[in-house]
Fold this sequence. Notes:
Layout: H1 3-13, E1 17-23, E2 26-33, E3 35-37, E4 42-43, E5 50-51, H2 57-69, H3 80-83, H4 96-100, H5 136-139, H6 156-170, H7 174-186, E6 207-210, E7 213-216, E8 232-233, H8 235-246, H9 254-257, E9 262-264, E10 269-271, E11 276-278, E12 284-290, E13 293-300, E14 305-311, H10 317-325
Antiparallel strand pairs: 1-2, 1-14, 3-4, 5-8, 6-7, 9-10, 10-11, 11-12, 12-13, 13-14
Amino acid sequence: MAQGEIDKVAEETGFSGVVWVDHAGELEFAKAYGAANRTYGVPNTVDTRFGIASGSKGFTALSVISLVQDGVLELSTTARSLLGKDLPLIADDVTVEHLLTHTSGIGDYLDEDADTEITDYFVGAAHELTTTEAFLPLLDGHPTKFPAGERFAYCNGGFVVLALLAERASGVGYHDLVRERVLRPAGMTRTDFYRSDELPADVAVGYLPLDGVDRSNVFHLPVLATGDGGIHTTAADISTFWRALFAGDIVDSVEEVLRPRRDVPEESMRYGLGFWLHETSDTAILIGYDAGASFKSTHDPHTGTTRTVLSNTSPGAWPIARALTA
């Protein structure tokens, strides 16, 4: 797609974010649009860091799979074996693999099937959510939706439970697990977890319309992200990630991670272990959508082509992402 066409879509939609396309490690297109901080008039640049919401579920999955690779966990490990008496409504037969593939059937604290708006408030005392263990009250009290393994149902809470299981099995906090087992081996030097009330100067503030005014998302999300999403990264680091993943630098079993486990026809995609997959090809996909954040990155392992769109608004990424694949 030509730069002029991308510019046109960006102008028509008021896009705020970064578009990045590279082929076999060679940069073909990179451009920033809009403001990283509207209050102070700070523009986005191609090096700006963005929250990627559920895009970081892939990092959670790889951290867990790395622990499986090391014999600390197994895909067949039950959640109950590490939860003990916590979260009693999670069925005893729910396993790590069920959670990784969104087939656990557990009730979700952030239910995407519910009739809600992206501007609604979900997490209550957002400032208290600084650790995975702090999510236990949010995760509790949600009845099982269906028996484990019966079908696919996207579940945010399941990935917080995965983070909890990984912490308890390894004795290492979730954030450090991701740093040690994904970010460092991948060479992602500009990716990390940041408190939303203490963002570095080069991180884009997320915006959403509230009462007719665009406001920060600081009250809508946990103050510090955990297993279901919210890490901050750059377009360049995402490309670095894809290359490292397919080179086997993060986990040995890349084929198992990206083997289709479930067809998801309502999304016209398939799902592996923490990753979306193209409906008919081997293209791997990470997607994130939340209050003040939208993100999509695809990587074709055959051509080495990466297409990434990061935005600091909820709807921002989608028109550009569609245009890139048209």
